Structures are given as structure tokens and as C-alpha cells.
Amino acid sequence: MFLKAISGGEFKNRLFPYLAYRYNNWSSRVVIEMWITFAVQHFVLWKILNSFVMTGLVYILNVYFNKKRSINVLLITIVSVIAMPNRFVFEPGWVADTGNYLWPITFALFAFFPFYQKLTKQKINPYSYVLSLLALIFASNQEQVGICVFALMILIIGYLVVNGEKVWILMPSWIINICLLLVTVLSPGNKVRYNIELHRFPEYGQIGLLKKLEVGFSSSGIELFLNFNIIVWLLFVVMVLLARYKIKDRMLKMITYMPFITSSIFYVFSMHRDSHGWTDNIVNNFFIQFTSLGTKLSISNTITWAPDFLILILIISLVVGLWNLIDDKRKAIFAIVISAMGFLSKFVMAFSPTVWASGIRVDMILYFSVVIVLLMLLKEYETDNKKGLDLIVNFMVPAGIIINIIYITAMPW
């Protein structure tokens, strides 16, 4: 689409008229689409730069969450990035999806570097500060990332102000973020696309606010807890391993085990539900409650409450687990906030047919929020049980390599 439009189509190699047309008729992501339009015409260069971005993602995650420069944490970070599910990038293609999701997420992490330096009482380097602002412009042009960045900036700035820190040097970042969000809100193209997607998804116009809330809640919950993903499953495994010796209260320990136990049961049962009658009766009946419009929730039928009720229990279990497993309660709150942002980034799918039409790739923010929380827990694990971390690495690295090979061989080169 981008290649055809700019290389001899009606715009005759004129980039800015094309971007203006897109802004007025389809999307507010003018900064991102400027890059994508260039990238599709220079595919080899995109491959090189995308490799640098993925390397940069590993680097910045280790800057934030691997102060001791642990080789184990580094290896798990690499595995987490290369084991990213290929379904995130197979829908419209690698160039479009990395440009619209992976790059904004990576640049958002770099954009927070001055905030990190301020929180850790380091001197803010002027060069890295300028680069962080440039990264922020790209990141905030993606509306989901931009909203998450805005919320996290508010929380960090508020925390610094409460603790008597001067935050004036961080205000340009906040202003840039707000300006890019206004670009999104004021874009005529977003309204045009909304109507087009509404026509493709006519059922959406017939559901009310409460149903939209349920759609967002259930779709986010099933992606986080019930759809198999090795990194999410590893997060639950690490929670169990940490809880074994960090949580003494049996009730709290069992609550922390809940995400692992429940997700593992559904992972196994869902793989065999077509070949075992008893599995069909139990698990299949649960999964058929999920539709393209959330669950079959009915106030008058209490059985239909089960999926949403289970997801609510698992969310509470995750929050309780993180609170009790991370010793520094400020970091525990941060882990919970990051988890909430990942969940809500998927949750907002329910409020726009445009985002809903984007499909599975919008889950990428949720995925990397899980990666961040996993790295925070591994830091706790490394402090108390380095041998246990070695065992996790010995499992994860081969598994990650195998998954990456599977993804590469499945790619439509």
C-alpha cells in the first residue's frame, strides 16, 4: 500500500501530499507513516535498522532492570525479544507492524531515560536528553503508546514533586507528548477511518457502554491468562518459585500460585479439547463463552458469569503476588502499574472498531509489559536464589532459540 502510493501513484513520489492525505482520510500517525513509506522503498536498510532497534530494545531494558549486568538476565531479555509471537507482525507485514508497534514501544522506553536518571538521582546528559525527545515524538505518534506514556509521566512527575524534586527539565517531554496526543484527537482521518471500520463491523454500533467494558475486560483477560505464551507462562513460573520461599502465609502463597495453576490447566486442556470428550465438556464449554463481542455474559444466567469472574480472580491474584514478591514496595507499585497499563492497552480495543480491526498486533504492548514485570521479578530472584535463575536460563535459552527458528521458518519471505 505505502510502496504503491508513493512510487508513481497519484502522488507521483510526493511524500508530504501523501502524508497530508493520510492524515485527513485515514490515520494521525504521520511521523510513523513517514518512516514506513521510506522503509518499504529501502527494504534492506529497514532490515538493518530494525535489527538495531531490536538490539536497542534489549539494551534499554537491561539499563533499567539489570544494574548488576547479570548475563542470565541479559539472556532472558534477548530470548523475550526474539520469542515475540510472530502473529504480532504477520497481519499487515513486518515493516508496517514493527513501525507501528515495536518501534514506538522501543522509542518510548528510550524517551523515559531522563525520567529514570531523575528517579535514580543521576545527572541528565544533554545529548541523551535531546535523543529522548526525538524518540518521544515517534513513540507518542502511536496513540496507544502515547496514552501509556502520558499516564506514566504523570505518575513519575507526581512522585518526584511529592518528594520535593524539581521537575522542570522533564516538562518538555510532557508537552511534546500532549501535543502528539492532540494531533491524534484532532485528526480528521481518524474519524473517517472510524466510520469505515464501523461499516465493516456493524455489530459494534449495536453494543452499549457496559458491553464494551465487558468486551475489553474479557479479551484482555483471555490474552493474558488463557492464551499460551511462553514469556507470560514464565512470569507465572517465576512467581511460583519466588513465592515458595518469600511468602510464608499459606493463603497468600496459594493466591500467588493461581495464575500459574489456572493458565497451565487451560494451556494443556485447550490443546487436547478436540480429542478428549471430557475436555470438550469442561474446557470447550468455557472457551465457547468467548466471542468476537466478549463473552456470552447474561445477568439472568449465573453460569455465564464464570469467564469474567475467573479473569477477575486471576487479576487480583497477580496483583497480590507482585505486592508480596517484590520487597521494595515502590517497585512493587511500579510493577503493578506497568501490568495495568499493558492490560488497559488491550482493554481499549473495546472502545473503537478501528482498534478492534487492528487485531492481535495491539497485544504487543501487553506482551512487553509482561517482559518488564518478568525482569523485575528476576531481579528479586537473582538476589535470593542465583542457582534457581541459572536453571531458568538453561530452560529459556534453548526454548527461545527453538521458538525463534519456528517463527523464522514460518515467515513469508
Automatic annotation (TrEMBL):
Domain of life, per lineage: Bacteria
Transmembrane segments: 44-64, 71-89, 101-117, 124-139, 145-162, 167-186, 224-243, 255-272, 309-326, 333-352, 358-377, 389-410
Family annotation (Pfam families): DUF6056
Signal peptide as annotated in the record: none
InterPro entries named among the record's database cross-references: DUF6056 (IPR045691)
Swiss-Prot/TrEMBL keywords: Membrane, Transmembrane, Transmembrane helix
Name of the molecule in the record: DUF6056 family protein
